[in-house]
């Protein structure tokens, strides 16, 4: 079943977030089971929201890519993770996303 995941990461800096993304290479080589990744800064650090095709795909990503990256980079932040079944996923402007992604920090056009 499709799931939505939320990772609340306390105390993570923008530089650490960028370093983790770069280490994993997810922007050029995303995990096969991910549909969406969105991140925003909060008063506690970062909140990451993702949509995955299954809980097992997310769990595999956590162990094989995210944990490996944070360990290699020496980043150890308190992280609260929630995984919830997603009964509906609606993306009415899907065709507009590639242009939007290219304008965002870290997007292909900004590197």
Number of individual domains: 1
Structural class: alpha+beta
The neighbouring-strand order within the major sheet is: 2-3-1-4
CATH class: Alpha Beta
User: What's the Cα radius of gyration?
Assistant: 14 Å
Total helical segments: 3
The largest β sheet comes out as: 4 strands, antiparallel
Helical residue percent? Answer: 25-40%
Model regions low in confidence, pLDDT < 50 over at least 5 residues:
none
Beta content comes to 25-35%
Series of secondary-structure elements, N-terminal to C-terminal: EHEEHEH
| Number of DSSP-assigned strands | 4
Description:
The protein has 111 residues and is of the alpha+beta class. The protein has a single domain (3-110), classed as Alpha-Beta Plaits. Helices cover 33% and strands 28% of the residues. It has three helices and four strands. A four-stranded antiparallel β-sheet has the order 2-3-1-4. The protein is globular. The model has no long low-confidence stretch (mean pLDDT 91).
């Amino acid at each position: 079943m499709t799931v939505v995941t939320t990772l609340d990461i306390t105390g993570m800096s923008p530089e650490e977030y960028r370093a983790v993304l770069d280490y994993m290479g997810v922007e050029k080589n995303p995990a096969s089971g991910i549909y969406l990744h969105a991140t925003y800064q909060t008063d506690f650090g970062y909140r990451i929201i993702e949509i995955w095709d299954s809980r097992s795909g997310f769990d595999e990503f956590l162990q094989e890519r995210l944990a490996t990256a944070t360990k290699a980079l020496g980043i150890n932040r308190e992280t609260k993770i929630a995984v919830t079944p997603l009964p509906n996923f609606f993306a009415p402007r899907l065709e507009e996303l590639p242009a939007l992604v290219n304008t965002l920090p870290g997007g292909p056009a900004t590197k």
